[in-house]
Amino acid sequence: MQTNINNKDIEAILNSLIEGTILVKNGFIENVNDALIQILEYKSKDELIGNLATGVLIPSTTEKFLEFNKHIFQEVNLVSNYGDLIPAILKINDIKIQEQDYKIVTIIDLREFREKDTLLFKQSRLAAMGEMISMIAHQWRQPLSAMSSILAKLKIRTLKSKNEEILNFNKEFDNINNYIQYMSKTIDDFRNFFKDDKQKEYLDINDVIDITITMIKPILDSKGIKINVNKKEELNKIFTFKNELIQIILNILNNSIDAFEENNIKNGKIDINLSYCENYLRIVITDNAGGIPENIISKVFEPYFTTKHEKNGTGLGLYMCKVILEKHFSGTINAKNIEKGSSFSIDIRI
Ligand SMILES: Nc1ncnc2c1ncn2[C@@H]1O[C@H](COP(=O)(O)OP(=O)(O)O)[C@@H](O)[C@H]1O
Ligand SMILES: [Mg+2]
User: Fold this and answer.
1) What is the CATH number of the domain that holds 215?
2) CB 307 less than 6 A from any atom of ligand 1
3) Which residue among 161, 232, 263, 300 has the highest number of C-beta atoms inside a 10 angstrom radius?
4) Which helix (H) or strand (E) segment is 332 a member of?
5) Domain's final residue, options 94, 109, 124
6) 86 within domain boundaries
7) Which of 118, 227, 306, 323 most suits a substitution to test ligand 1, by most atoms within 8 Å of the C-beta?
């Protein structure tokens, strides 16, 4: 086949590829395509051409390889314009162009694949957990209600007694009964939470907040964290997804709990404020846990962004909140710092 492809044509071909592509000569970047500029978040090629290729491609000390579409590729990290590390796989080929030796490096950005993997993994784990909780709930129901009825019988018997001390047992029986009711209620709440019925319901937002707090209250109590909800009596019902909303609020509360611990704060306090703004319901959650360092506040909603490396933070909590809000609630979430801590504001369209 006789073709006359010139440099312009080669450039047009490279720019039409999905993969990021770098043309390297003697270790220096000779040219790059549009996909690569996009992956690395540069504005133009000129910022890259002439640099050492190892400036954007971090050669790993221990070489790692990865199977992708049944082929084995080298796994590397790319450095973006802003210094972020981007997981990628690459393939290097030697080519000759006009009698000169070049290396052509093609690169696939793995971020999106990784994100899907982790989300899927998280979802399947949630489903498995839901099944387990459901089984526990089932097994506990009978003994819990048996305990309740034994207590009721004991109560009747003590009431017949003339003995002052035995009469006092009654108060204790009531206490035990409250604990039993509390246990049945929490296990039901958890079971409903994990149920996979993604349907909108008419919800009283006050109830949603109550359920969420019931779920997390024992942890808050054990750490001496106070929580205060500013309920809105005049709020009407909203038509929305209950479990997702609970999950979002739980994620934010859990972050506050982490922050209290990290910053060693003794008089932890969380406030939840509800209000209406035009056709939005606004939930503002504030804490006095020291706030989010200003240099990272713009990154907290990014996937995998975490400062909890020792605690195995996933960096997915706030990212999931944002995705769920945008997808299911036509909503938004924002973070800012206030005097002694942070403030997360959620807007849900109603
Ligand atoms: N209430 C808060 N106070 C201080 N920092 C916070 C708070 N909430 C979130 N952050 C910061 O945002 C980061 C991302 O949170 P998240 O997405 O939930 O991931 P993870 O909790 O796994 O780290 C946290 O690592 C933390 O640095
Ligand atoms: Mg978190």
Assistant:
1) 3.30.565.10
2) yes
3) 300
4) strand 332-337
5) 109
6) yes
7) 306
- Would you say residue 246 lies in a domain? yes
- Which of 65, 92, 109 terminates a domain? The answer is 109
Which atom of ligand 1 is nearest the CA belonging to 251?
18
Residues with Cβ within 5 Å of ion ligand 2?
Answer: 255, 317
Q: Return the pLDDT at 271.
A: 97
Residue type, 25: K
Rounded Cα gap, residues 191 and 209, in angstroms = 17
Residue from 247, 300, 320, 324 to probe ligand 1 pocket by mutation (most atoms less than 8 Å from CB): 300
The residue contributing the CA closest to ligand 1 atom 4 is: 292
90-139 pLDDT per residue, tens: 888 898 888 899 999 999 998 888 777 777 777 777 777 778 888 888 88
Distances (CA, A) of 299 to 117, 292, 293, 318: 21, 10, 11, 10
Closest ligand to residue 118's CA: 1
Q: Angle at the Cα of 163 (from 157 to 165), degrees rounded to 5? A: 95
Residue with tokens 């942890």: 219
Residue-number span of the structural domain to which 35 is assigned: 7-109
In this predicted structure, the answer to whether residue 42 has a pLDDT above a threshold of 90 is yes
Give the tens place of pLDDT for each residue, 177-218. Answer: 988 988 887 787 777 777 666 678 888 888 899 989 988 998
pLDDT of residue 254: 93
The domain that contains 23 carries what CATH number? 3.30.450.20
- What is the atom index within ligand 1 of the atom nearest the CA of 289? 3
Evaluate whether residue 211 is within a structural domain: yes
